[in-house]
Structures are given as structure tokens and as C-alpha cells.
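Folding Problem: From Residues to Backbone Shape
Fields: amino acid sequence; protein C-alpha cells
RECORD BEGINS BELOW THIS LINE
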Amino acid sequence: MPPCALRGCPFFFSAVIEQRGGIKMAKFTIVDKDTCIACGACSASAPDIFDYDDEGLSFVILDDNKGIAEVPEILEDDLMDAFEGCPTESIKVSDKPFDGDPLKYE
């Protein structure tokens, strides 16, 4: 197993390891409000994770869009559906906390 799998991988290689029965990694998410177009795809795919703020932009319900709360395992499939369905790639997912910065791992 590569060492980055234990620290957290910003390139989603941990998902490959997970699919092969390896280490189960925590998932964190945040919305980049600078690129969100409020299309509703994320809240349709994952209504327990995403909602709209006062400006009509998407945000993460779990931690007020700070990217520090671990997404519950039961919601991870919904999270990945929303991540893959976001037309502007505004939804960020990592196995490490974002600490309020959606561009932290780019």
C-alpha cells in the first residue's frame, strides 16, 4: 500500500484501494461557492449533505461548508453521485479535512 493511503490522498487513489478491500478512508466535502451555479444537482443527489444558503448557492449542511465534518459512511454513495454530477466541479471531496478552503488540495 502506498504511504499516501495512510496520510490521505488528494488524488482519490484511496478510492481505488478502498474498492480493492483496503483501508476505509473518511470522506470530507466542501462546495466552492465561487464556481457554484446553484443548479440543484447536488441537493437532488444528496439532500442530506447539500442545501442552499441565503444567496441561493449550495453548501454542506454537516459543517456549514467548512469541509471539516466527516461524511457519514451511509451517505458516501450519495456524496459521490453529487460529486460526479456537479457540472461545474464545485463539489470537492477528499479523505482529509478542507479546513474551510475548497482549493486546499488542488
